[in-house]
Amino acid sequence: MSTSQAAVNVSGKKESPGASARARALAERIEAGARELAAFAEGLSDAEWKTPMASGTDRRTVGVIVHHVANMYPIEVDVAKTVAGGGAVDVTWDAVADINAKHAAETAGVTKTAAIELLRRNSRAAAEAVRGLTDEELDRAAPFGLSYGAPMTAQFVIEDHALRHSWHHLARIRKALKR
After folding, report:
1. CA atoms of 81 and 126, how far apart (whole Å)
2. Under a CB-based contact definition with an 8 Å cutoff, are residues 52 and 63 in contact?
3. Rounded distance, CA 6 to CA 18, Å?
4. Are the CB atoms for 26 and 130 separated by under 8 Å?
5. Per-residue pLDDT tens for 106-165?
6. How many DSSP H helices and E strands does the chain contain?
7. According to CATH, what is the number of the domain 19-177?
8. Based on C-alpha coordinates, what's the Rg of the chain?
9. pLDDT for 26-79, tens place per residue?
10. Which contiguous run of DSSP H or E holds residue 98?
11. Residue 57 has what pLDDT?
């Protein structure tokens, strides 16, 4: 394929000639996790949607958690892109806790429709951003605060955050609801 041609991915969108098969696979896994979470959330009753997680100190409702996953995609992708560009990310777990607490306070009454729509929209945007990364960018490592300053690759950051996030919270929601 010449540099002026572009491949077409499974969603029918054109890809740049340097598009990475690994990036496409990561993006598809991000979308799969979001679909699983959205499908589960759609089947929840109003009472289940409003159920507190009651896990450790986390008392956010199921609905707030679904919205939280959706809300974090842009941040998680920006962090991964920073690492992909060789930039260090100096974020702490305390900062994450503050973001989560502020989000919970601001979205306490979030509706199922709004949260699922945001989940779908933001997961698609996150997947498209990840599809744009090259293998070289995925392999680039930089100090990452959530890993205590260890140099982590952009691929690790994607897998441990944007990709894992929906699966992690879906498992916690299922446990809280005993489903």
Report:
1. 11
2. no
3. 9
4. yes
5. 999 999 999 999 999 999 999 999 999 999 999 999 999 999 999 999 999 999 999 999
6. 8, 4
7. 1.20.120.450
8. 17
9. 999 999 999 999 999 999 999 999 999 877 777 899 999 999 999 999 999 999
10. helix 93-106
11. 75
**Token pair of 29 as six digits:** 């896994």
d(CA 154, CA 167): 19
Scanning the structure block, which residue is given the tokens 């729509």?
117
Confidence at residue 58, expressed as pLDDT on a 0 to 100 scale: 78
Q: At which residue do the structure tokens 């806790």 appear?
A: 97
Q: Which two tokens stand for residue 123?
A: 């997961």
How much is the pLDDT for 59? 84
| Whether the Cβ atoms of residue 155 and residue 81 lie closer than 8 Å to each other | no
CA separation (Å) from 26 to 72, 99, 163? 17, 25, 7
